[in-house]
Amino acid sequence: MGDSPAQIRGARLQKAVLDATLARIESAGIGDVRIADVATDAGVHETSIYRRWKSLPRLLLDALLSRVGEQIPLPDTGSLRGDLERFMTDLIRFAETPSGRALIRGTVIAESDPEVEAIRREFWLRRLSSSEEIVRRGIARGDVAATVDPRLTMLTLGGLVHLHVTQLGGGLPPGLARHAVDLILTGIEPR
Fold it and tell me: Any residues with CB less than 8 A from the CB of 59 and at least 6 apart, and which?
């Protein structure tokens, strides 16, 4: 016997709602996601969504961060080169999937809704801030100069993939992760 909307709770509710939200972002675009549609797709009551997330922007942010965190975890290989190449490889692999392309495009296309714009900005700032840890660890190990800007480094690498997906179309060039990391490290290795 199937669950009624009232019977889905806790981790199952969270997974069902986040999966339904991501599916809506991928199919309709981030600006056209509605809590009523997500609730129907997830098989839960709208009140359950509002009780847990309080607002649509919070739900969108949680869904995007959860998917990207699953698909592009922050590596810790013990070396800056290893971490950056793994990060780029995971980002490229994610960007080459239909859902990855949809999510990347859905988080960059300008919206007229200020709430959606605010959540898009918060998503990118949180994700960027967490990925900067890769460079901070490299600085702490002495892999790069202490003056290196972690944000600039990660914006350069991540922005390259995002530009390919959102503006250049087609597939990402083979060897992009290694070539991009080589280019960055040549510029930031201690001399």
Answer: 17, 21, 35, 38, 49, 53
For residue 1, what pLDDT band results from cuts at 50, 70 and 90?
A: very low
In this model, does residue 5 exceed pLDDT 70?
A: no
- Average pLDDT of 139-145? 93
Tell which residue, 76, 77, 55, 53, has the closest CA to residue 66.
53
pTM of the predicted structure, to 2 decimals: 0.73
Sign of CA dihedral 119, 125, 131, 133: negative
Alpha carbon distance 170, 1 (integer Å):
45
**Residue 151 banded pLDDT, cuts 50, 70, 90:** very high
Q: DSSP letters of the chain? A: -PPPGGG--HHHHHHHHHHHHHHHHHHH-GGG--HHHHHHHHTS-HHHHHHHHSSHHHHHHHHHHHHHHHHSPPP--SSHHHHHHHHHHHHHHHHTSHHHHHHHHHTTS--S-HHHHHHHHHHHHHHHHHHHHHHHHHHHHTSS-TT--HHHHHHHHHHHHHHIIIII-SPPPTTHHHHHHHHHHHHHS--
